[in-house]
Amino acid sequence: MRKSEVVLSNKRIVPNSGLYLVNKIFSRSNLITNINKVRSPKRSQPVISNGDICKVAIGLLTLRKTDFPNTQER
Predict the structure, then answer these.
(1) pLDDT at 68 over 70
(2) Do the domain assignments include residue 59?
């Protein structure tokens, strides 16, 4: 895996680059795996995993959007 370097500059950062950094942080941590281990008695076999819901919420916040309709299914 290539190393990422964060450097202070006067250049403008576009929102998509923020998503890249958040994705790098997720890939290097066990946060999503640990979130997926949490089970709710009402949702024993969820169609959408807790980790996916968390990733969408954090991605929306990274893009400075707070409404779920701003998401797009891929």
Answers:
(1) no
(2) yes
